[in-house]
């Protein structure tokens, strides 16, 4: 049974390009814990959402790539062989960058018409950008008859976002969009890219609460945070052997060398080193069935993101404060790059509905804004939706 998105996408493709497409989808993601650790070679614990970006594609006989986004309501055309291609500074960079970097990696792409749509909120911290990249990359490779290595596709999509779009993100978003397992979170080592499933207590629910705030700071501030982390590594690697990323620093080592770091850089490093430890302990807690301990670590994660990493905002802090006052909440924290978007809440299953109602009412009463609230079902990674 086709979803409404599939039906609308097929209809739009037929109207624009007068052919029958193949459909592919790539999910957004939640991250239970492990924020801003991926680009520090650390650990994260994400899961895929059952919300996605969808791509409809059909081959062309030439070397053109023609893209339409139903979300942006625009059609843009590119030449796959254009020399010295430069970013436009808009949504098309995510797709075009992936095509360019796939070809640089040795994949021979065919021309294509491509239409994209989705039910994944843009700018909510659910990694719509990675879902755009992965859905387009998966579709372009399939359209070209190229076998798809999911981990390699994730790496190429990340490289496109880093070097073409200009956002210095880590690997987590693209990896989970490509490689997620339905029904489970993943504990991902962002250095080795080894991952294992982490079961979430079936009596608990993951509830996303969208502040509806979209502050225009995230990309620039994201890059600044990464630069702060690199400054910390540059200083500490001169004092401690074997340091190539903050993942290699223990908390006692960081504290021992705190005076060698500027105060701001020290606080950035303290968040990352602490967050990596919290992520590993949260996975162990879930393995042991200790959901309360996982929730406690999520609470600590938010406080560190707010105070040391300084990527929260008033709306996120308000939403976390409200959540922690509602019965049945094990833990609550901001999620994603920051400066708006969503909180992730670990909630007792039988109280999830009451939690959603209370959150919506209290947030609306305080801000005048009605939040979007979604109870998450961990979904599978990217793949074909209709052959």
What is this structure's SSE topology?
Layout lengths: L3 H14 L4 E10 L11 E2 L1 E14 L4 E6 L4 E6 L12 H13 L7 E7 L9 H16 L6 H16 L6 H8 L5 E5 L5 E4 L5 E11 L3 H20 L13 H6 L6 H25 L3 H17 L6 H11 L4 E6 L5 E9 L3 H16 L4 E5 L6 E4 L1
Parallel strand pairs: 4-6
Antiparallel strand pairs: 1-3, 1-13, 2-7, 3-6, 4-5, 7-8, 9-11, 9-12, 10-11
Helix pairs in contact: 2-3, 2-4, 3-4, 3-5, 4-5, 6-8, 8-9, 10-11
What does this structure look like?
The protein is an alpha+beta fold and 387 residues long. The chain is built from eleven helices and 13 strands. The protein is globular. The two termini are 13 Å apart. The model has no long low-confidence stretch (mean pLDDT 94).
What composes the largest sheet? 6 strands, mixed
Rg for CA atoms: 21 Å
Give the mean pLDDT: 94
The figure for the number of domains is 2
CATH architecture of the largest domain: 2-Layer Sandwich
Strand order of the largest sheet: 5-4-6-3-1-13
> What is the CA–CA distance across the termini?
13 Å
Overall morphology: globular
Strand content: 15-25%
Helix content: 40-55%
Q: What's the count of strands?
A: 13
Keywords:
single chain; 387 residues; alpha+beta; Ribosomal Protein S5, domain 2; Alpha-Beta Plaits; 2 domains; six-stranded mixed sheet; 11 helices; 13 strands
């Amino acid at each position: 049974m086709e979803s409404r998105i599939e039906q609308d996408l097929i209809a739009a493709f037929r109207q624009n390009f007068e052919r029958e497409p193949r459909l592919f989808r790539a999910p957004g993601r939640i991250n239970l814990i492990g924020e801003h650790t991926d680009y520090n070679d650390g650990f994260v614990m994400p899961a895929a959402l059952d919300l996605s970006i969808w791509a409809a594609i059909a081959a062309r006989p030439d070397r053109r790539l023609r893209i339409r986004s139903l979300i942006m309501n625009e059609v843009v055309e590119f030449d796959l062989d254009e020399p010295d291609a430069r970013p436009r500074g808009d949504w098309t960079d995510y797709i075009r960058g992936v095509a360019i970097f796939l070809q640089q990696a040795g994949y021979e792409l065919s021309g294509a018409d491509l239409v994209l749509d989705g039910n994944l909120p843009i700018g909510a911290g659910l990694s719509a950008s990675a879902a755009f990249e992965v859905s387009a990359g998966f579709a372009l490779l399939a359209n070209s008859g190229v076998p798809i290595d999911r981990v390699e596709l994730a790496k190429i999509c990340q490289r496109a976002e880093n070097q073409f779009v200009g956002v210095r993100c880590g690997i987590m978003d693209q990896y989970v969009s490509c490689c997620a397992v339905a029904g489970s979170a993943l504990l991902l080592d962002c250095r080795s890219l080894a991952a294992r499933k982490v079961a979430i207590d079936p009596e608990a629910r993951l509830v996303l609460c969208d502040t509806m705030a979209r502050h225009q700071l995230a990309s620039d501030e994201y890059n600044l945070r990464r630069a702060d982390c690199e400054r910390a590594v540059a200083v500490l690697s001169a004092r401690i052997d074997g340091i190539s990323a903050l993942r290699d620093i223990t908390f006692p080592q960081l504290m021992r060398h705190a005076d060698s770091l500027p105060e701001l850089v020290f606080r950035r490093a303290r968040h990352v080193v602490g967050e990596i430890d919290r992520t590993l302990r949260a996975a162990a807690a879930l393995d042991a069935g200790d959901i309360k301990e996982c929730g406690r670590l999520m609470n600590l994660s938010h406080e560190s993101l707010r105070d040391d990493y300084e990527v929260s905002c008033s709306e996120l802090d308000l939403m976390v404060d409200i959540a922690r006052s509602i019965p049945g909440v094990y833990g609550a924290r901001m999620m994603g790059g920051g400066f708006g978007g969503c909180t992730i809440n670990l909630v007792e299953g039988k109280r999830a509905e009451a939690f959603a109602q209370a959150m919506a009412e209290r947030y609306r009463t305080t801000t005048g804004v009605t939040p979007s609230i979604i109870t998450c079902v961990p979904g599978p990674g990217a793949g074909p939706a209709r052959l």
